[in-house]
Amino acid sequence: MIKAVRGTRDLLPPETALWNFVESAVRDVFRAYNFQEIRTPIFEETALFSRSVGEETDIVGKEMYTWQDRGRAESDRGQSLTLRPENTAGVVRAYIEHKLWDRGLNKLYYIGPQFRRERPQKGRYRQFYQIGAEVLGPPSAGSESPARDAELLEMLATLLDRLGITGWNLELNSVGCPNDRAKFNEALRKALEPVVGKMCADCQRRALSNPLRVFDCKVPEDQPIIENLPRISRFLDEPCRAHFEAVQAILRTVGVPFTLNDRLVRGLDYYTRTAFEFTHGALGAQNAILGGGRYDGLSEALGGPAAPGIGFAIGEDRLVLSLQESASAEAVVRRPDVYVAPLGARMNPDAARLARELRRHDLVVELGDETFRLKKSFEAATKAGAKYILIVGENEVKADAFALKNLETGEQISIVRSELAGKIQAGR
Q: What residues contact 130, with CB distance under 8 A and at least 6 apart?
């Protein structure tokens, strides 16, 4: 028997009801903040990710699904392609390619699958789903403002509250500008030299190629060493420090709580200044629900104009896990309002017509079959979780009035066709 590939899974009802609930709330909240949806390809040129995410990151170095294209066209043959491991780079690529700044499109969001070949664990899969948003544009449009950072963070706090996820924690840091990072990296190299031999193989490699990535290490034995390393907060220049303080001031004013974490660096090389994560205790040691940050030089790195930006990605798999603490899938499933039961030969057409009429009133209708005996129809209606069962027999069709029974109370009435929808709606 062929099964789903390791690190992937099927999302089945009723769990998919929670996913739809999340995505519906996301669209409603993002709409209130004037974000519009973008959909980019699932695979891109490999160079897009190596230039944006960073050659020395674990994502590019170990986790991407990459292959050489075997296209028929000469221009395609031999092209290196990669399933997207994240979506920010694709959004910025689309922003540049389609000159979205000319259309005034600077607030974009996406929902879709991403792919990384990492070890599957609770809430982490090789095909996983992200919800993300990006705010970017020319500096003249205020895209560098700390107000943009704070608005994005306030929107995320609003979303988590709307979903009923309580107990979240916002961790905040500034990773500075490129000049700050250069000074910080040099200080890290010096601090690591006498101790790096005691650290894991990944940290030993990172210490040479990109010392900042040492902070990504999850090996317990390395944590005491990492705890004593220099912190980026000591290396921020005055503009970066002022920017970070302004973000914090706005968050305090709008009432969004946060904690400062000067070890937070995020896993992608394009981040500058503000970096953040929302965490939740329901997820165990790997407790991040979502994270993001500012990326003021990414557009230029991809050959585009100056377009400072900030964005985030929500791990939807992990968000749903957090949501399951407060809401079961069954609780958000909309069960059938009515089960239409055709009774007797040649009743299927009349039952189908009636079901169509009721669905036009935004009712959820489950349709039975004329071959079912009445007892089987009742059993099917109960199994489907319907509130009512509606009997459609020859006598009912002639009278244009139908037997409607409330399966919870046992009450049964005869009601004319024109009043059916209103009665069922009133009883929901």
A: 86, 87, 110, 111, 112, 113, 114, 313, 314, 315, 316
| Cβ neighbours for 6, distance < 8 A, ≥ 6 positions apart | 120, 126
Kind of pairing, strands 365-367 and 388-393? unpaired
Last residue of a domain, one of 299, 323, 347: 323
DSSP notation for 204-259: HHHHHH-GGGGGG---GGGHHHHHTS--GGGG--HHHHHHHHHHHHHHHHHT---E
As a whole number of angstroms, the distance between CA 233 and CA 213 comes to 16
Between residues 328 and 385, the one the model is more confident about: 385
Q: Cβ distance 341 to 158 under 8 Å? A: no
Q: Decide if 61 contacts 55 (C-beta within 8 A).
A: yes
Is residue 79 over pLDDT 90?
A: no
Average pLDDT, the chain: 89
- List all residues 6 or more positions away from 62 whose beta carbon is below 8 Å from its beta carbon: 117, 118
Domain count along the chain: 2
Residue pointed to by tokens 């009883």: 427
211 exposure class (CB count in 10 Å sphere: 0-12, 13-18, 19+): buried
Alpha carbon 118 to chain centroid distance?
A: 18
Domain boundary (304, 323, 342) is at: 323
Give the pairing type, strands 169-174 and 272-279. Answer: antiparallel
Q: Is the pLDDT of residue 120 over 70?
A: yes
Cα–Cα distance between 348 and 334 in angstroms, integer? 25
Residue 291 has phi, psi (to 5 degrees) of -160, 165
128 and 171, same domain (yes or no): yes
Band (414; pLDDT cuts 50, 70, 90): very high
Q: Are residues 308 and 358 in the same domain?
A: no
**Which tokens hold the place of 58?**
């674990």
